[in-house]
Write a structure and sequence with these properties.
about 325 residues, alpha/beta, Quinone Oxidoreductase, Chain A, domain 1, seven-stranded mixed beta sheet, 16 strands, about 30% helix
């Protein structure tokens, strides 16, 4: 079968296409014929200590498709069912998925929308519900709000009754985000949004801040929090993995700071996250209250172009790659 692999090169990553055997599902696995896959910025970042060293690895971390075969012991799924899930190697004609992490695709979703759902919305669930304990009426600040995780977080927060503030350096992107339901947009790429957040929240600050940029935004996000605010760190696209912490503010405001990553999570923790998403957010998606935002769709052979498009920072929401026609 055709499969794309990704490997570090210098300060970036490169893709290479390979012909590899169709895998055989082991106990607890599904063999899925991939129809579409989502592209995610995290796997494009070279960071050997977090992402598995310098060796090439199968590319792609989320997909949607039809179950082709089930492994021994799998009783919850049958061949022909539509599923979506996170799992390495999704930029291929077939992928092996952990059956426990697979989610049935709601009828309302296209293959491309389904492929762009699992990772971003699992992350959003972790930030807003799993660790953030968001409540209706609270303010959620989202830096880099036009990213896939940023848009998913905005949509999830809105569906849960929270209000959202997003930052972006593009007025056009902010206009699109407002049309998608964002309450307030701040046009900036710099850590200079404290005053605007305070004005928007009548001097209170944000109840939850999502730092999807990295170290350059950390201090300003912390500063912009309300009493007992929570700060989620989910990325470092700025390449900055260090920052200072104002301990006096952390102490006085009783703030919480947490990271959002699945790299070191156990399988049981991942299973719990999937169950939480299915209970708390999937009903909004199935009903159409939340519609995953897919900015562009590329064909399988165009994956290098899709990668370049993502690296250009032009999209709002997610980028999908069509592997097999539905």
């Amino acid at each position: 079968m055709k499969s794309y692999w990704i490997k570090p090169l210098g300060s970036g990553t490169v893709l290479e296409e390979r012909d590899v055997p169709v895998p055989v599902p082991a106990a607890g696995q599904l063999l899925v014929r991939v129809h579409a896959a989502g592209l995610n910025r995290g796997e494009l970042i070279t960071r050997g200590d977090l992402h598995g060293g310098d060796a090439a690895r199968p590319a792609g971390t989320e997909s949607a498709g039809e179950v082709e075969r089930v492994g021994p012991g799998v009783t919850d799924f049958a061949p022909g069912e539509r599923v979506m899930a996170t799992g390495r190697g999704s930029f291929a004609e077939y992928v092996l998925l952990d059956a426990g992490l697979a989610i049935r695709v709601p009828d309302a979703l296209t293959w491309e929308e389904a492929a762009c759902t699992p990772l971003a919305f699992l992350v959003a669930h972790d930030m807003l519900i799993g660790q953030g304990n968001v409540k209706a009426g609270e303010w959620v600040l989202i830096t880099a709000a036009s990213s896939g995780v940023g848009v998913a977080s905005m949509q999830a927060a809105g569906a849960l009754g929270a209000r959202t503030i997003g930052t972006s350096g593009s007025a056009a992107k902010l206009a699109r985000l407002r049309a998608l339901g964002m309450n307030v947009g701040i046009e900036t790429r710099l850590p200079d949004f404290y005053a605007a957040v305070m004005e928007t929240t009548a001097g209170k600050g944000a109840d939850i801040a999502i730092n999807g940029v990295g170290g350059t935004m950390f201090a300003e996000c912390l500063r912009s929090l309300a009493f007992e605010g929570r700060l989620a760190t989910v990325g470092y696209v700025d390449g900055s993995v260090e920052s200072t912490i104002d301990l006096a503010t952390l102490h006085a405001k009783r703030l919480k700071v947490f990271g959002v990553s699945a790299i070191f999570r156990t399988r049981e923790q991942r299973l719990a996250s999937v169950r939480g998403f299915q209970a708390d957010l999937l009903p909004f998606i199935a009903s159409g209250r939340i519609k995953p935002v897919v900015d562009r769709v590329f064909d399988y052979a165009e994956l290098p172009a899709a990668k370049a498009f993502m690296e250009s920072n032009a999209q709002v929401g997610k980028i999908a790659v069509r592997i097999t026609a539905g």
